[in-house]
Amino acid sequence: MLTVHIDGKTTTIPAGGTILDAARKLDIDIPTLCYLNLEDLKVNNKAASCRICVVEVEGRRNLAPACATPATDGMVVKSNTLRVLNARKTVLELLLSDHPKDCLVCAKSGECELQDLAEKFGIRESPYDGGEMSHYRKDVSPSIIRDMDKCIMCRRCETMCNDVQTCGVLSGVNRGFTAVVAPAFEMNLADTVCTNCGQCVAVCPVGALVENDNSWDVVDALADPDKVVIVQTAPAVRAALGEDLGIAPGTSVTGKMAAALRRLGFDHIFDTDFAADLTIMEEGSEFLDRLTRYLNGDQTAKLPILTSCCPGWVKFFEHNFQDMLDVPSTAKSPQQMFGAIAKTYYADMLGIPRDKLVVVSVMPCLAKKYERARPEFSVDGNPDVDIVISTRELARLIKRMNIDFASLPDEDFDAPLGESTGAAPIFGVTGGVIEAALRTAYELATGETLQKVDFEDVRGMDGVKVATVQVGPHELRIGIAHGLGNARKLLNRVREGETFHAIEVMACPGGCIGGGGQPYHHGDIELLKLRTKVLYAEDAGKPLRKSHQNPYIIELYEKFLGKPLSEKSHHLLHTHYFK
Ligand code: HC0
Ligand code: SF4
């Protein structure tokens, strides 16, 4: 252990730690911009490029960046001398000299780390103004807007895209004032292998990378008297929405969210969780069918089955594992199953044509905006899901419409597409989809009641998890990965011949709770853990915890679909993949 003294306080940290680690242990606030270190998720941005965290170290002539300077035993550090404060102020002024000052209309306004620091340091004008300003075209994809005039070259997005997601889309190009982070040949994101996972957006400290905001499209739809507007909310939204609306992190806001959506004027308040239960019926049945055929020696039965509900993951395997496109489940994601059922079964119930119904999704994810726009998810040009907004956009909408969220009562979703079992909310956490599938697959395969529904072995934040689960006579080997770099590792193990029967992948670290559309986590891993707890608690509190027990799913099959994997189910609920 090393003993470190900062501003007259003393602490000890393990060898290898930095001055910043020691300061954080002492609750001494050293500002950072490029720093990003999520240890549990193996995320570490080593750029040390912004220099806002400089400190004085006794015995050294130059100021040292706290984030990148290893602590030594007995080190004496000063974090708040005049010299330090002046250096930080100069760093900020230089950053602002090449940064647009359009905070009023910036998508990041109010949540921008640069704006916060400018305020904290009382920067009222930038003495270096008048220098060269870069002018870069805006790049707009269905999910993400890149406004590179605002890039401060912190490289956090690069670390997420290259090291964590292994997508390799973003890297620094050009020099001096024209230096930006961009795809190769400065292509538009939509023309690259970008998965739309939004992890670059999740960590951008400024407004250089933001979501493509569709919240005004929702306002327009709600104001249209000729439309019936319904909404579905993804599992992970309820675990984080409150964070942007003055509610303590780790609080479930499911009931308040349903109430707020009703106050916003949606005609029916439904839940993606319903469709998560439906996904388990289809994907679980597909798995059992493949497993049975495989065990009977059918060479065409492909195992492991791969989950296919995460659109970032789907685009990732379409680009990177083209030799394995017949391996993923053909089941559509819950978002798209919901849209397909809403625009057929539910539109029929209402007695209206599909183009009179507007389906809005609230998602923790930016890739869902891209997914809804995929051509195969439309009928005669009318999409199954019309508008997708992120958790952040819903929070903005609630504030814009003057709804006092904290004082709302808890309300329920509407029937029939709003009912779900405990198997559904855990879809939002890494390991949750496979746990939900195991609960149903076990009972369908054995005809016996599963007594212990919690599959603890598939839970937790390890990047790659491998578990062995007994389902009747079968010992199943299950793989789970979250973060696309971990998915790549797991799939390479499959390519090399390692046996797995089923694999779950979620593109974002932690699963959807860490999605690119969630309230910004600002590098706080504890926040992701709190969100995880919310979803497991919601599961444990439900009277029914297996998807096949959902009475409205049973009714849907009886009245409309027939049975899982029926012709109608295949037509509406399954898809295919593209090279
Ligand atoms: Fe997810 Fe989903 S669980 S991808 O992470 O499967 O976004 O929350 O909505 O569709 O249900 C995201 C979250 C969903 C879908 C569900 C799945
Ligand atoms: Fe990379 Fe994901 Fe950002 Fe695309 S959305 S550039 S894949 S981090």
Description:
There is one protein chain. Helix content is 33%, strand content 15%. With 579 residues, the protein is of the alpha/beta class. The protein has a 5-stranded mixed beta sheet with strand order 2-1-7-5-6, sandwiched between helices. Strands 14-13-16-19 form a 4-stranded parallel beta sheet, with helices on both faces. Strand 5 and strand 6 (64-65) form a beta hairpin. The longest helix is centred in the middle third of the chain and has 24 residues, at 272-295. The model has no long low-confidence stretch (mean pLDDT 95).
Question: Characteristics of this structure?
Answer:
579 residues; 17 helices; 4-stranded parallel beta sheet; 22 strands; 5-stranded mixed beta sheet; binds 2 iron/2 sulfur/6 carbonyl/1 water inorganic cluster; alpha/beta; binds iron/sulfur cluster
